[in-house]
Amino acid sequence: MTELNPTAASLLGFLHGGEASGYELVETADLVIGDFWSLTRSQVYRELAALEGRGLVEAGPTGARSRRPYTLTNAGRAAFAAWVAQPPGPETIRYPLLLSIGFGSWIDPGALLGFVAEHRVAHAERLAKYEEMLAEPDMDKYQRATLTFGVHYESAVLAWIDSLPEILGG
Amino acid sequence: MTELNPTAASLLGFLHGGEASGYELVETADLVIGDFWSLTRSQVYRELAALEGRGLVEAGPTGARSRRPYTLTNAGRAAFAAWVAQPPGPETIRYPLLLSIGFGSWIDPGALLGFVAEHRVAHAERLAKYEEMLAEPDMDKYQRATLTFGVHYESAVLAWIDSLPEILGG
DNA sequence: AAGGCCATGTAACAAGTTACATGATTAA
DNA sequence: TTAATCATGTAACTTGTTACATGGCCTT
After folding, report:
1. Per-residue model confidence as pLDDT tens digits over A2-13
2. Which pTM does this prediction carry?
């Protein structure tokens, strides 16, 4: 039994909440883990097909708009349980802005600072979003933990951005 | 002329420093951008082949151990210049530990904190490494800027980790 | 001169992205 | 009742990963 990849495992995780179509799973995943685990529609459909092939999920009868509702099987529940018990791997970050800065000597200084400024806006917005969400008092402590990561991360990025003029300016 | 992807563009960037084999480029890239732009050997060879096909690099005569030294062409230099002038895209993060925490209600609490603790060690080490590197007085300001990101990032992760017992413990 | 290591590269596969297709709903 | 929109999915392509192959180099 080949290992589950984190994307497939997450789908199994979400299916614990009851049946869902691929489309709905994408929505849920985007909302719940999308900020630290990117995935796309096509991926989800492919994983669901693979999971069905392995007997970890079952598709119910096709409904309107060719909606195919998936449910967990017992094997799927077991596979998920085995997966969550494993230690998670290291994170990967791919940060194009850092490439721009790393190759900054080939860029017009004004343009470079412009890139950074534009970038800053998006981070400030996400930080605000996370803080707003955290204000919600009755929230699952696990989601609170992941949101708190978001706050720390975005704050760090903003602090770093604000330190750049001093580093690059001189 | 299709766009360059950031990996290919980075290779062109490094080739400004003179000829290099694929192997050497992997080493350089790992060292210089590896912490925020992961890439693998196979990718590099594939990109080099593609770049050669587009006339952006040229392979010199094959040497010992079938080493193939690549050099930039003028077209390559131009393509790189065009690429660095573009605004960089958003970063992507994939953080398996956050998945574990998000699905934390299915994990034994002790095991979860164990995962976190193990993770913490790696981050503390990287933070120390970055700080040590920054102590070097005569360093390119662009590298200093990217290293400073590393310091902010790792510090944020550590602070977040240290806040977890309070969030999850209660 | 034999054994192990290291530099170099390739091939096969898995995961991720982009662009497209289609048939319900809903709103004008 | 037609047009717009939305839910749903597929196909083609690009990127990323893992595992393997090979032959020069160094050490004893």
Report:
1. 789 999 999 999
2. 0.94
